[in-house]
Amino acid sequence: MSPSTVVDRGLEGVIVGATGLSNVEGLEGRLTYRGYDLNDLAPNASFEEVCYLLLFGELPNRYQLEDISVRLAANRRLPQALIDWMQATPKNAWPMDVLRTMVSGLALFTPVMEDGAHPSNPRAAIALIARTPSIVAAWDRIRRGLTPIDPLPNLSTAANFLYMRTGKPPSPEAERALDTYLILLADHSYNASTFAARVTASTRADIFAGATSAIATLEGDLHGGAPGKVMQMILEIDQPERAEGYVRELLARGERVMGMGHREYKVRDPRAFHLERMAQELGDASDPKWYAIARALEAAADNVLREHKPGRQIHANVEFYTAPTLYSLGIPADEFTCMFACGRMAGWTAHILEQLADNRLIRPQASYTGQARLPWVPLDQRGRRDAGRSGLPNGASPASEAAS
Ligand code: COA
User: Fold this and answer.
1) What is the largest CA-CA distance in the chain?
2) pLDDT digit string (tens) for the chain, length 404 residues
3) What is the pTM of this model?
4) Is 306 in the pocket of ligand 1 (CB under 6 A)?
5) Does domain 227-325 match CATH 1.10.230.10?
């Protein structure tokens, strides 16, 4: 069979694998985890229930939920050496750099097998899900010159995270909002970071390697790096009535409206509905300004993008209302992508285990666009390429170049 010469740039529409974890129905705007609609999970489940569902394939009964909740709580504490490492890190380090490094660093404090790898199993997945928010909370305090706070075992993942940032147990509304946020972000089929995790796992690298790849891939603003920039837009707009002019100027400069558009969804992202509601409720209880600007920005972006990109279906994605939601919870914009990682760690680890359970090395092909076969040129017959000067023709004498 001759190799295909068709290049699918960005793998758009290409099916590269199977998963039983989540299903994105982009035309209908539906997302399901293991068959359960996110619109049912978001208002009814807890993040712990969703972790169980993703890792073990079914909703937990009361005993199973208690068990995973206890195990998550028991794994939250970070090795002291990791905290010391963060203490020694420059305070202006970017939170995503710190998170990626520390998640990778967790491997150093986890027992290895004979071949040097770490066991990749649900136990390791639970430890990673439990410790990721602890790293984010610890770094948040350390960079502000504060002492990290020990986790509390009797709190949910969401409540404990907020407690570890402030030292105060959160309000039930704040806990519920963050819990829902974590559920909404927990999985999303073969998105870029999950795919990176699966590619890494497909080489039989271990769960820490897969999780680290995933975090590295999350950080760009075409993926998880968008919500911080959405918040930057909201702060710059400052007044709802300035939203439309802002969007027009942005597009005139050839820039994109962050938090708008999605490779899979051709309608509004179903997660945006829940996030918008939370942003509004949290805003009503604290400062309604951020939600009001976000609402005006979405309406303006819908209008102006319809004009500028006719025929394109560009609507609010999950990152859009993430920004006012997390901001209203007191989380700074440069930590938003880390929050995404806290939820998505559940999906990443479940995908890594799913990949390993039925593995085949993921190794695609590329269409070669370089030179055709060239004759070998001995070193002293090659042209010289100086910095700042394009290459001289092959065969130019090095001696004459030196003299020139
Ligand atoms: N603002 C302005 N234009 C946008 C846009 C946005 N947010 N999203 C897509 N477009 C335009 C592109 O400029 C392009 O226009 P063109 O064909 O005239 O050149 C067209 O829509 C298709 O864009 P493309 O990047 O090929 O589509 P995609 O399927 O790869 O896009 C995203 C998906 C998410 C990368 C894209 O919508 C985007 O960059 N959004 C902003 C960043 C963001 O919110 N990221 C978080 C994603 S969850």
Assistant:
1) 83
2) 455 678 899 999 999 999 999 999 999 999 999 999 999 999 999 999 999 999 999 999 999 999 999 999 999 999 999 999 999 999 999 999 999 999 999 999 998 888 888 899 999 999 999 999 999 999 999 999 999 999 999 999 999 999 999 999 999 999 999 999 999 999 999 999 999 999 999 999 999 999 999 999 999 999 999 999 999 999 999 999 999 999 999 999 999 999 999 999 999 999 999 999 999 999 999 999 999 999 999 999 999 999 999 999 999 999 999 999 999 999 999 999 999 999 999 999 999 999 999 999 999 999 999 999 999 999 999 987 654 444 444 444 444 443 33
3) 0.93
4) no
5) yes
User: Could you tell me which of 120, 121, 118, 134 has the C-alpha nearest to residue 73?
Assistant: 134
Q: Does any ligand 1 atom lie closer than 6 A to the CB of residue 317?
A: yes
Contact 54, 347 (CB under 8 A): yes
Measure CA 303 to chain center: 28
Q: How many other C-beta atoms are found inside a 10 Å radius of the C-beta of residue 167?
A: 11
Helix axes 122-143, 157-166, angle to 10 degrees: 20
With residues binned 3-state (H G I as helix, E B as strand, rest as coil), the percentages for the chain, rounded to 5, are 55, 5, 40
- Helix residue spans in 309-335 (DSSP H): 318-328
Active-site entry in 48, 49, 219, 319: 319
Question: Would you say the CB of residue 338 lies under 6 angstroms from ligand 1?
Answer: no
CB 267 within 8 A of CB 29: yes
Domain 23-220+342-357 bears CATH identifier 1.10.580.10: yes
- The minimum-distance atom of ligand 1 relative to the CA of 309 is 18
Query: What is the distance in A from the centroid of ligand 1 to the CA of 20?
Result: 28
